[in-house]
Amino acid sequence: DIQMTQSPSSLSASVGDRVTITCRASQGINNDLAWFQQKPGRAPKSLIYAAYSLQSEVPSRFSGSGSGTDFTLTISSLQPEDSATYYCQQYYIYPLIFGGGTKVEVK
Amino acid sequence: EVQLVESGGGLVQPGGSLRLSCAASRFTFSTFGMSWVRQAPGKGLEWVATINADGSEKHHVDSVKGRFTISRDNARNSLYLQMNSLRAEDTAVYYCARVWSDGKFDYWGQGTLVTVSS
User: Fold this and answer.
1) In chain B, fewer beta carbons within 10 Å around the N or the C end?
2) DSSP per-residue codes, A39-84
3) A50 at interface of B, judged by CB pairs closer than 8 A
4) Which 58-77 residues of chain A touch chain B by CB within 8 A?
5) Contact (CB<8Å) B103/A87
6) A9-37 residue pLDDT tens
7) Cβ separation of A46 and B95 shorter than 8 Å?
8) Regions of chain B where pLDDT drops below 50
């Protein structure tokens, strides 16, 4: 099975900061990588698919990059409503695997 | 907007069974794959199962193979997860999600809680 390693596991940043979360796959997954945002007590929300394509109505401050095994989610200017846990997911091959999550706190 | 509404969760004893349902609306259900994803209390997301648009292909995570079965009824716009031989470690919120043909997820339901305890 492919392993998905996210880092950091948590971070704290101020409003307006640029935030970067990384996700590393244990083997190449083409660009079949998605990012999700989950707020406490809520269902996950899809942010990015195919490594860098934004889902509809996702703010442009969110962006994705990378290919092969190393991927990045960037929030260009952190907003208070971005406080959440973020997960990457590979959908290249079964079993589908999520990363362990990155909890983002907005100071 | 797309709607996915899960139901069927509850408290069940170890070894028991439950069937979860996911009612889909506001899109052409029969043209999309669907998945179940679960989240144990305080833990991360875990993929459980995926079924393709016509129900001919199914995939399950190893930990539920032989116990859980994903299915769908396109005439009823509904997705199901039959869960047998339930264990304490199956305790989680179960979400259904819509899946495109390239594998990407987009819409998720609000989730239904399954608690396995005596």
Assistant:
1) N
2) -TTS--EEEEETTTEEPTT--TTEEEEEETTEEEEEESS--GGG-E
3) yes
4) none
5) no
6) 999 999 999 999 999 999 999 999 999 99
7) no
8) none
